[in-house]
Amino acid sequence: MSETAHTRPVRFRGGGFAPKPNRKIGIVVFVVLILLAEIGTRNGFISALTLPKPSDVLGTFAELYQSGLLWKHLIPSLSRLAVGACLGVIVGVGTGILIGLFSHIRAGLVPLVAAIFPIPKIALLPLFVIWFGIDEGSKYALIAFGTFTPTVVATYGAVDNVDRGLIRMGQSFGLSWMSIVRKIVLPGAMPGILSGLRISLAIAIILLVAAEMLGAEYGIGAYILEAGSLYDLERLFAGVVILSVLGVLVSAAIGLIERRLLNWRV
Amino acid sequence: MEIRLNGITHAYGDTAVLRDISLAVPSGKIVCIVGPSGCGKSTLLRLMGGLEQPSEGEILQMGDAPSGCLNPLTYIFQDFALLPWRSVRGNVSLVLEDHNLPKAEVNRIISDVLARTKLTDFANALPKQLSGGMKQRVAIARALAVNPAVMLMDEPLSALDSQTRELLMDDLIALWTRTPFTAIYVTHNLAEAVRLGHSIVVLSRRPGEIREIVHLDQPLSERHFGDATLEERQHYLWSLMRDEARAADAELLDV
Ligand SMILES: Nc1ncnc2c1ncn2[C@@H]1O[C@H](COP(=O)(O)OP(=O)(O)OP(=O)(O)O)[C@@H](O)[C@H]1O
Ligand SMILES: [Mg+2]
């Protein structure tokens, strides 16, 4: 073949499909969107009824912080979230593992979980109030119930995906049942459980607001609902921002756990 | 410890996989099992180690395991079966943890087997950082850690390249020469069979039956790569297997 006419470097086509973490871009997206909203509201391009000025929202937020009301709303919300989500996740992971390991439990519970999953848990709120009382009990139950189903589904899927060869290896070395579950099944299912947790915890935050619709004096959800009923957009947005920040923090925390716990992944 | 199979027959549903296999695996010897693809070699090994139950026949272990033996029948798997989330050391310690051994004893066993498999420097590496040959050495170290009476090896070297395979065969021979162990070694590779086997069981195509048992008297340490007598035995084995293998291949196409 003639050298000159057809000699060229081989085209690189192996790139992509390997997202790398880059925090800066995420922050830039937020900043640009907020700046656009600020400019738009300032020069009247966006009317005050459509969107509050980001700077006003910030002001409301500062006020909330200075008056000490922020913590008064945040702390009950966080404790509801913590208790409810922990309950839902622990029971969910446990049930998911049982479904993953025992055929009778699987046969009995999988249809039940499938039946419960699509029920909007908010619709059951009155029922929860009767069962668990109007106080904290019904709020915990709502959040726990909402996180339970996605956790179960993610967990038993993850257990199903654990390499059977590894379980067989454990049996062939005479490991006890408990050891196999603790040292092989659980760590093997961990990637799936953690990615399920991202979804369950986001659902928990959504349900927090729903839970506080009923008889909560303090709480982010109560604060947002009150602002909403008064059409106080600044306060509404201040509350929404808190929820978003909460979501970002939870997601970052899971990312951290994944990096620590799953560094063995190729 | 000896293993004896009496009239083992096994079927999965309607598919007969093994038919009337009777075989004795003497203590301190390596028995290789060769046979065409799908003839039930892996199944036979799973039956021997108690991971599955035969449809008919019995599998006996004769004699007691030596003292200090934590897991008499120990497997080495083709795909290594290492826990990816545990280091080399952690993978070995996994099989010791259920035995309530004193900590010093556990550490002694782990250092000993890692030294024997030349892995001491990689004790803290994760499986993803190891080459295929090293992974299989970890699996061998893990098997040695429980001081098995019988090793059950299912194509332990077939996931490796041929150079690594040669090296690991030398390692296995060195380990056996130091302390002879009983082993059943399933392989596709006739060269491996004639290097490692004191006797070689040739199975027919599915349903697997014993066609012939070939005995090799040459000591393991004197068998070398490219040895003429071994070549001759290997040719003989291939002549036994060729028609079976061809028929088995055609059979798979029918399915
Ligand atoms: N769990 C199972 N259920 C049903 N059929 C099985 C099962 N395991 C193996 N078989 C069938 O039994 C036959 C023997 O399988 P086995 O894996 O023992 O063969 P093998 O000799 O090890 O083959 P190879 O040389 O390819 O490893 C095959 O036809 C396979 O499809
Ligand atoms: Mg096989």
TrEMBL record, chain A:
The keyword Transport applies. It is found in: Cell membrane. The keyword Transmembrane applies. The chain crosses the membrane at residues 25-45, 81-102, 109-134, 140-159, 199-224, 236-257. It comes from the Bacteria. It is a multi-pass membrane protein. Residues 74-258 form the ABC transmembrane type-1 domain. Keywords: Cell membrane, Membrane, Transmembrane, Transmembrane helix, Transport. CDD domains: TM_PBP2 (cd06261). One of its GO terms (cellular component) is plasma membrane. One of its GO terms (biological process) is transmembrane transport. InterPro entries: MetI-like, MetI-like_sf. Pfam families: BPD_transp_1 (PF00528). PANTHER family: ALIPHATIC SULFONATES TRANSPORT PERMEASE PROTEIN SSUC-RELATED, ALKANE SULFONATE ABC TRANSPORTER-RELATED, MEMBRANE SUBUNIT. Belongs to the binding-protein-dependent transport system permease family. This is ABC transporter permease.
UniProtKB/TrEMBL annotation, chain B:
PROSITE patterns: ABC_TRANSPORTER_1 (PS00211), ABC_TRANSPORTER_2 (PS50893). It comes from the Bacteria. Pfam families: ABC_tran (PF00005). One of its GO terms (molecular function) is ATP hydrolysis activity. SUPFAM superfamilies: P-loop containing nucleoside triphosphate hydrolases (SSF52540). SMART domains: AAA (SM00382). This is ABC transporter ATP-binding protein. It comes from Litoreibacter roseus. The lineage of its organism: Bacteria, Pseudomonadati, Pseudomonadota, Alphaproteobacteria, Rhodobacterales.
